[in-house]
């Protein structure tokens, strides 16, 4: 998979892709991540990529010309399965969406900034508009990192134990059950006996029941409850 991220603040994306799982995924050649500085496509020598909104109002708007040049340049080199715009008014990201994106080959993620992008970008270039929650960040870079992380970690071969991703919260519509590790007893706090029994079918049943109970308590909406 190849992920191209377009940003006017590319330095914000240096750290997320330089450590841990995302770094190893790139080293294994399971994914390519390329961050493009939108100011490389500025309309003038001053690096301008934004302008005032027609009709007035506070805040600046990202211009269509630099974005068009960047996206068109990338599309001239390869086909893209999705061009995603990170925006607070997009569809809220969930695990099912992540699973679908992970099956694609080439993705562009456009990071919004200022008051957003010229609406013509959204109308003519963007295939998906994604939000990571009902709040506003200073820009789309953190959202792009969240999306990329969620996608990359479930690509086969990225995690040392691939079954780990399959048991994450939301993969089966439930929150993950409680987990424990050694020691089995600590200051009077005990690990549930079932987990020490070695009876795998009963352990799996216990985990399922715990996942349902936790989901019912914390996220009843996932079960269709209010």
Automatic annotation (TrEMBL):
Q: Where in the cell is it found?
A: Cytoplasm
Which residues are noted in the entry as S-adenosyl-L-methionine-binding? 112, 132-137
Residue ranges of domain tRNA methyltransferase TRMD/TRM10-type in the record:
1-223
Query: What CDD domains has UniProt attached to this entry?
Result: TrmD-like (cd18080)
Q: Which reaction does it catalyse?
A: guanosine(37) in tRNA + S-adenosyl-L-methionine = N(1)-methylguanosine(37) in tRNA + S-adenosyl-L-homocysteine + H(+)
* Alphabetical UniProt keywords: Cytoplasm, Methyltransferase, S-adenosyl-L-methionine, Transferase, tRNA processing
A Pfam family of the record is tRNA_m1G_MT
Main location class: cytoplasm
Q: How does it assemble?
A: Homodimer.
Sorted alphabetically, which PANTHER family does this protein's record hold?
TRNA (GUANINE-N(1)-)-METHYLTRANSFERASE
Name of the protein: tRNA (guanine-N(1)-)-methyltransferase
């Amino acid at each position: 998979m190849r992920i191209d991220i377009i940003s006017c603040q590319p330095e914000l994306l240096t750290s997320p892709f330089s450590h841990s799982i995302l770094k190893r995924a790139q080293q294994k050649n399971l994914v390519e991540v390329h961050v493009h500085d939108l100011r490389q496509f500025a309309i003038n020598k001053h690096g301008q990529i934004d302008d005032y909104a027609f009709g007035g109002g506070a805040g600046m708007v990202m211009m269509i010309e630099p974005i068009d040049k960047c996206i068109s340049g990338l599309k001239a080199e390869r086909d893209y399965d999705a061009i995603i715009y990170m925006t607070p008014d997009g569809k809220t990201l969930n695990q099912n969406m992540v699973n679908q994106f992970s099956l694609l080959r080439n993705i562009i993620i456009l990071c919004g900034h200022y008051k957003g992008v010229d609406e013509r970008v959204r109308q003519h270039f963007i295939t998906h508009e994604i939000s990571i929650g009902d709040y506003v960040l200073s820009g789309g870079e953190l959202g792009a990192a969240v999306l990329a992380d969620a996608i990359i970690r479930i690509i086969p071969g990225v995690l040392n134990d691939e079954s780990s991703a399959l048991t994450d919260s939301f993969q089966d519509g439930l929150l993950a059950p409680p987990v424990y590790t050694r020691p089995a007893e600590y200051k009077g706090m005990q690990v549930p006996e079932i987990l020490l029994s070695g009876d795998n079918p009963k352990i799996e049943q216990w985990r399922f029941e715990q996942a349902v109970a936790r989901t019912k308590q914390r996220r009843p909406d996932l079960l269709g409850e209010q």
